[in-house]
Design brief:
Layout (H helix, E strand, L loop, with lengths): L2 H43 L3 H7 L19 E5 L3 H12 L3 E5 L3 H10 L20 E3 L2 H8 L5 E4 L6 H7 L9 E4 L4 E2 L4 E2 H9 L6 E5 L4 H6 L3 E6 L3 H11 L5 E6 L2 H24 L3 H21 L4 H4 L2 H12 L4 H10 L4 H4 L6 H16 L4 H10 L5 H9 L11
Parallel strand pairs: 1-2, 1-4, 2-3, 4-5, 5-8, 9-10
Antiparallel strand pairs: 6-7, 8-9
């Protein structure tokens, strides 16, 4: 065989190999595309009609929707016209959705519909959103039932934690079984010592009610002012978290991330409250930034320990629902929990403080200790805050206890 014949044979072999590789790759891609199409079809089968319509996308046609370009208009019903409920309604309206706020006060409702503002909370802010339909107020159960009957309705729950399960228990017949409930309350339910999601499901007597949990560093007044704010929304079913993300994210002042760790997001949002009470106590004692920074850092580690023990993801505590919210409530005088800690150190009673304001950190501190005992965790900062709230120790004894603990290597969690 001549050199030319050998070269021609090698060229033919190379071309054949390249063509075969291209054909095999193309067939594998077709196979994977068909597998993906079938997987999406199976996912679609598990969605009931209302959920499929509310998604705004057809999973059999498009597996990964481009949520930054165009989105379907949603009917959003906000339960509670307090400061945070008002801010959530305003944010959802900015996102181009039809928003209704349910409240019990007929006068407050009438003013909202006439003047486009909340006459009780955040009164200095207009609720009118340029280019969008105005937020509507409703105040009767008949109106609420009518709004909740809209297919694909999303409920944003903004009631105080301890009132939430009783409200859902009393009105469970109004709540459609396929309606997505987005919980914004950051706390634990004291009577049953439950996470808010578990307490809501028990109150509704349903295991399959779709739930999502919205949390993160966010004061209502700053959302209304348009200060750039970031939040996280978590759900066991990630597509439900994406639904809330699409409703609330406006690509201008509010940015929402998703999570599949509702346990971690709930624990982070709830358990930062007693820690913020402790931060207020530190300020009330006259201690400075050295002390506060040390306690917040070490408390974050305790929060991570408890999250792991309760079945959450410790990385969640490193994010917006954990460290982010913890810094907000511990360092800002706007925090009700932080102000409560200062008032307690100055001698006021818990009962007097709670007469005119809701302080979730008081009730949550009790449940946090129950969780710590259940999981066999020491959590010295949580325990000191709890003891100070209930006047079991003095501030001087708390400092001596924490500073006098055995010295050891700092453990940094990865």
């Amino acid at each position: 065989m001549t050199r030319n014949d050998l070269n021609n044979s090698l060229l033919t072999l190379s071309l054949g190999f390249t063509l075969g590789l291209f054909t095999a790759t193309h067939l594998l891609r077709l196979r994977d595309r068909e597998r993906l199409r079938k997987a999406c079809s199976r996912t679609q089968k598990h969605l009931i009609k209302g959920q499929r319509a509310a998604l705004g996308v057809d999973l059999t046609r498009c597996c990964i929707p481009n949520i930054s370009k165009g989105k379907s208009r949603q009917r959003v019903v906000v339960l509670g016209a307090g400061a945070f409920g008002t801010a959530m309604a305003y944010a959802a309206c900015q996102g181009g959705n039809e928003v209704v706020i349910y409240m019990r006060d007929a006068r407050q409702c009438e003013v909202m519909n006439r003047e486009h503002r909340n006459s009780k909370y955040l009164t200095e802010f207009s609720l009118h959103v340029e280019g969008e339909a105005d937020i509507r107020g409703i105040c009767t159960l008949e109106e609420l039932k009518e709004e909740l009957a809209v297919p694909g309705v999303v409920i944003i729950h903004a009631l105080p934690c301890q009132l939430t399960p009783p409200w859902f228990r009393e009105h469970k017949d109004l709540i459609p079984k396929d309606a997505l409930i987005c919980v914004t309350a950051k706390g634990l339910y004291l009577p049953t010592q439950q996470l808010m999601g578990h307490a809501i499901l028990d109150a509704l007597d349903r295991a399959e009610q779709p739930l999502a949990f919205l949390s993160g560093p966010s004061f209502a007044s700053e959302i209304m002012k348009g200060d750039p704010t970031t939040l996280v929304v978590a759900s066991d079913q990630l597509f439900q978290a994406v639904r809330i993300q699409r409703i609330m994210n406006n690509f201008k002042t509010l940015r929402v991330f998703t999570s599949d760790d509702p346990v971690g997001v709930q624990l982070g949002g709830a358990l930062k409250n007693p820690l913020a009470v402790g931060a207020g106590m530190i300020s009330g004692m006259g201690c400075g930034t050295n002390t506060l920074s040390a306690v917040v850092t070490r408390a974050s580690g305790e929060l991570r320990e408890l999250c792991i023990a309760m079945g959450g993801n410790p990385r969640t505590i490193d994010g917006l629902a954990g460290t982010g919210d913890l810094m907000l409530t511990c360092f800002s005088p706007q925090s009700r929990n932080q102000r409560c800690g200062q008032r307690l150190i100055h001698g006021e009673r818990v009962e007097d403080i709670q007469n005119n304001t809701t302080v979730e950190g008081i009730a949550t501190a009790d449940v946090a200790i129950v969780y710590a005992d259940m999981c066999g965790l020491e959590l010295p900062i949580f325990r000191c805050v709890h003891a100070l709230i209930h006047k079991k120790i003095t501030p001087e004894e708390a400092i001596a206890d924490l500073m006098g603990r055995p010295i050891h290597h700092e453990v940094v969690h990865h």
